[in-house]
Each structure stands twice: as structure tokens, then as C-alpha cells.
Amino acid sequence: MNIALITFTKQGAYTCGKVVKILEKQGHSCRGYKKGSFEDDSGLEPVAESLQDWTGQQFRGMDALIFIGAAGIAVRAVAPFVKSKTTDPACITIDERGTWVIPFLSGHIGGANDLARLIAAEIGAEPVITTATDLNGLFAVDEWARKNNMHISDMKLAKKIASDLLQDKKIRIKSYFLLKEPLPKGVTWADADHEVDLELSIAPTPDSRGALHLIPRCVYLGIGCRKGASREAIEDLVAETLRDVGISMNAVAGVASIDLKAEEAGLVEFCRRRKLPFQVFTAEQLAEAPGEFSGSSFVSSVTGVDNVCERAAVFAGEGKLIIKKQAKNGVTVAAAIREKTYGF
Most CB atoms within 10 A, among 203, 220, 293, 313? Predict the structure, then answer.
């Protein structure tokens, strides 16, 4: 995670510096700041602008914000920027002495609860977790989806599932992926005689209308194109290809191609707009992809490998090909799926 931390006192600076070191050891990217005229040797970056301006910049660009100081300061700082639990960063406040760690925004989807528990364990503090499912030891569907990189189809339905569990109602689950048992408390397998409450699939199915759909991001697109292919042409073929086989665009985890296309403007722009990671591989790497592919002598003469899109999809996804090469308007698309077993 990309994390920004800020404090307002000399004692807070000591605590802030300690938390920065802990998080960096855990692999997070951190920047520590201080606002105030106090002197210290923490090495934190001074903030010259107003706290609101600083918070606005960090809120838009960071995965998490941590305030070392009074909870009221933190709440007032973020209040103008709060929009949605699906987009807001994780926000945490820690008192200056490091006694309490309080996640107060995006506890589940943003990961604030888990981050607070980690920090508290490392500095000997008490995490103050207030979300009802956590307090009652119940399955938190939004948190589970985040941890497993799944798209949540409807946040209102996710909220309803949490409410039903708190009322001791059973949640019936159906999955097109392997799930390790035991299921969480309150969750049971769906059968033919009952409606589905929660479905795990790469596209909603007709027999589970009204269910909350969790869509694992496990599909990798391999894309090839002629020089100068437009972003619109790529977008159209991808949408058409996925629609024809019933796969949600939300299942796409990344895009891959050959290194010759690393700076292809239309392809780069497609990935940027969709916020999809874009990987490129050499012809030698693609030639090592396992499986049978639609070979082309022309493609081989140009790129050094007989097929780009199919091989790139398989190589990136480390999985199996589920859509063979589709071609239109100088663009080729294929898809592979990374199969996984999910646990609770």
C-alpha cells in the first residue's frame, strides 16, 4: 500500500517515525509528514500548506492515511473528501503515545481494520475495531472480496448480507470456483430449492438473479494489434469478445502483449483508462508458453513468434486459454484464466 502519515506534536513525531519503519518492513511504501513548529529528529517532511490542502492531495493519491494525534483532527481533515467506501482510502488515527489505533474509514474494502491490527500488534497498542461483523465474529463479505481481489457487484447487497448475518439469517452461497471448507459462520451451500444470496463467478448466471456477485479478477487478456491501432478499436473487440462468451469485464486482472507493443499508444491508453496492469514479453518468452496455439507464419515473420495474443494471455495468467484468438480491425484478442482455490 502507498501510505501517508502525519503528526502534529514532538511526541507524535516519535510515534510516527516508529510506525513508518514498521510499515516499510512489511513492504508498504510510506511518507511521513509533520505539521507544526516543534523541533525533532524524526526526519519527517514538514508540511507548509494547510492541513485540508495536504489531506485532499493525499486522499486522492494514497491507499491509506494515518493521523498521529487527536481523532477530531483526523475526522475534520478528511470530512470534505469522503465519497464512497469503494473508493475512499483507509483512514486511521493513532494517539501520539501509541496507545490506541483507531480505523475510522474504509475498514473493510480499504483495509483499515487489518492495517490497524498490524500496527497495534507491532507497537503494543490496542486496536479499536467498531465494525459490527468484526465485533460479532461474522463473515465480512466486502473485506473477504478485497483480500481475494474480487469485484463486488452491488454494495447495497453486500450491506444486506452483513445485516442478515447479524440477524442470524443464513446466507446461501454458490461458487464456480473451488472453495475450501469449512464455510464461515452463517454461510451455507445453496441448493436447487432455495434462491442464491451470494455467487462467486466471472459473470452473473441466470439462476442467481438478485444475488450479490463476487467476481474474481483472474482473467488475463492477450492483445496484439497493428501499428497505430486505436484505443477504440481495441476497446470494441475486447467488449465484444467478453460479451459473446459471458465474461464480465470486471473479471479482467491484466493485459499482456509482446515487447514490440510496449509503447503502442492505443494499447497503452486502453490499459490506462481501464486501470489494468500492462505486461510485455519477448518473443522468446512467449514461445515458452505451454499449450496449443493458433499459429501464423505472417505473425511469426513480423514478431518472431507464431501467435502473440494467445501466448501472451497464457504467459501472463499462468493459466489456461479460455478464449482463442479473435480478430477485428487490425486487433487480436485472446483470454486465459488463472484458476485458484479460495479459502475463508
Answer: 313
